[in-house]
Amino acid sequence: MGKWTVERMAEELKSTIHDNLVCVILYGSGASGDHAGKHSDYNLMVVTHRLKLLGLQNISKAVVPWVKQGNPAPLFVTLEDLQGFVEVFPVEISDIKENHRVMFGEDPFLDLPVSHQNLKLELEHNLRGKVLQLKTQFMMTEGKPKKVQQLLIHSLSTFLVLFKSALWLFNVKPPVKKMEALKKLQELVPFDIEVFQIVDRLKRGERIKDLDVLQTFEKYLETIEAIIHKMNA
Is residue 111 part of a domain? Predict the structure, then answer.
């Protein structure tokens, strides 16, 4: 069958969903130019007029090989769903609004406002929750360096997206690339950015000689907690 590109996936969705399809959106690192090789994937949102079980079953012929290739399953939402998501998922919607590419149809994010207060509440909720999750995941590594390094790599994008969204709290439009956004946040909430740069290098496949992975994780966690504290001081 060959490789499933984003373009091919969009065409398959168009031919399967037909007039019920509103748009296909590529979002995240694949849309922003911040894609980091094998450690990144392609995220799609598929907006339809309505969603029925039989339709989802038909779409599975495209979704299954797409996921088997290593990509997350596309998000299937209706236009009505999207309006509600702005209130309960303002962080995610803010990130998609700023980093997306329309593969088919009209852009549903152009007139989609995000509440500043809702954004602040979800940011704090997500950041504190992700820190708790990170500590639990660290315990499951038993402190083994290889596992800890993978934990660092896989957790980085989540925190960078949240810190990037935090710029909206300061009425600053986030730069497209997550590491550039982190540098911008550093100007507003001073912290040591070096540990994030180290983890980013690891994510991009670079080998760092004599790196103490456990010490790096400790600094990573301490810095994240310090940023959360300063943001809510």
Answer: no
Flag whether 129 is in a domain: yes
Q: Which two tokens stand for residue 58?
A: 């038909």
CB neighbours of 206 closer than 8 A, spacing ≥ 6?
A: none
Dihedral sign from CA coordinates of 52, 54, 55, 59: positive
Query: CA separation (Å) from 224 to 10, 173, 206, 221?
Result: 37, 21, 23, 5
For the chain, the domain total comes to 2
3-state secondary structure of 193: coil
Q: Is residue 142 part of a domain?
A: yes
pLDDT on residue 28: 82
Using left for φ > 0, alpha for ψ between -120 and 50, and beta otherwise, residue 113 falls in: beta
> Which helix (H) or strand (E) covers residue 75, if one does?
strand 75-78
pLDDT digits (tens, 9 = 90+) for 121-132: 999 999 999 999
Query: Tokens at residue 225, please?
Result: 């907690």
Euclidean distance between CA atoms 171 and 50, whole angstroms: 35
- The domain that holds 91 is classified in CATH as 3.30.460
pTM above 0.70, yes or no: no
